[in-house]
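Fill in residues.
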């Protein structure tokens, strides 16, 4: 389990304590949110090549998870999945914002921008943690993660 690095988005109340017991020192909590449970959990594997197999193994354990950096199922939080941005699609007849007489030159966006961020995203595994999960549900998810990690990592 020492190979997993976690972050959690804390957006509401729920029962996710079992998911936080692996490496509490690696939890990333926002200030003032110590008593809130996450809306999702993200952890990072040592290598990007491990993500797909890890997710498949989690599914076999009944744990629904996904990789964030997946072109087949684009995460719209990642700018290079924004076709309208990458292809400079114009929402106005004047050509704004990319070919706009009212603005200066538009920035160039490339998929190769932000390589370190892309490396982290490629190693990430994402789990949604809805508030209706029970303590037992979260314990079962944590057990599945532990089992898969002990075999694959």
């Amino acid at each position: 389990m020492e190979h997993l690095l976690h972050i959690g988005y804390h957006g509401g109340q729920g029962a996710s304590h079992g998911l936080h017991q692996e490496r509490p020192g690696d939890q990333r909590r926002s200030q003032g949110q110590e008593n809130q449970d996450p809306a999702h959990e993200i952890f990072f594997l040592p290598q990007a090549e491990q993500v797909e197999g890890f997710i498949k193994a989690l599914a076999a354990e009944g744990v629904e998870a996904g990789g964030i950096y997946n072109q087949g199922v684009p995460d719209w939080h990642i700018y290079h999945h924004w076709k309208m941005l990458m292809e400079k699609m114009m929402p106005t007849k004047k050509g704004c914002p990319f070919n706009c007489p009212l603005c200066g030159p538009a920035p160039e966006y490339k998929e190769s921008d932000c390589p370190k961020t892309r490396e982290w995203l490629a190693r990430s595994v994402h789990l949604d943690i809805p508030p209706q999960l029970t303590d037992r549900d979260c314990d079962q998810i944590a057990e599945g993660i532990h089992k898969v990690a002990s075999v694959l990592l």
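Residues 5-75+115-152 form a domain with the Aspartate Aminotransferase, domain 1 fold (CATH 3.90.1150.10).
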